[in-house]
TrEMBL record:
The keyword Transport applies. GO terms for biological process: quaternary ammonium group transport. This is Spermidine/putrescine ABC transporter ATP-binding protein. Keywords: ATP-binding, Nucleotide-binding, Transport. GO terms for cellular component: ATP-binding cassette (ABC) transporter complex. Belongs to the ABC transporter superfamily. It comes from Rhizobium loti. GO terms for molecular function: ATP binding; ATP hydrolysis activity; transmembrane transporter activity.
Amino acid sequence: MSAPLVDIRNVSHRFGQLAVLKDISLRIEPGSYTILLGPSGSGKTTLLSILGGFVTPSEGKVFIRGADCTSTPPARRPTTTVFQDYALFPHMSVGGNVGFGLRMQGVDGATRAARAREALALVGLGSAFDKKPHQLSGGQRQRVALARALVIEPAVLLLDEPLGALDLKLRRQMQDELKAIQKRVGTAFIHVTHDQEEAMALADHCVVMNDGRIEDEGPPERVYHRPATRFSATFMGEST
Ligand code: ADP
């Protein structure tokens, strides 16, 4: 087996008295699409925030590419997070938005533009460089947010309910897009959702969470057809 890209070892987290993660251990393989699936309040976002460096766990360690990143701040770890509201800068062009992170890294203008064009092409928006965010549809804006994250070339892309703001039809369409983009770039994606269908459509590896613990994990077909626990069986059978 290849070395894990991400190795979460015995992570627990409390907010005050509230234990939200209870001894989580999880390995993420390079190039994989992992879905963290579970009901609201099960701890998915907290785990993603720990991976992104926004929360330091009360206990346990997170290794990325073999390095202990447990307390490394977001800007200094090889992860990028795409949030649900994808917050593009409205006054900047699409190209400016995508190149923004590179500008913060001190990359020169010509290189920034070239890399932003490349990232936009990857998400199927090669012609949107000079547009403003308000000229794009919701799905297109989401793809700009993806391009903006991918242009940094993170080792791991973290997605927090990335399709949550879209209507159901667009959501299903964007699922196929997301999977295709992930396979094209080969970056490991870790994606939080409470939508079982989304998990089935996207995951190489599906992690079912409940009450701060991992109930079940494996290929989505296995988790769906041969769930390891009663919770997993019940939850996988519910539809959104
Ligand atoms: P999920 O993403 O699965 O909905 P979360 O990780 O957002 O779950 O939340 C898990 C639990 O932690 C919930 O009970 C939530 O209310 C609580 N929680 C999340 N963030 C905070 C916070 N910053 N302060 C206190 N409690 C929090």
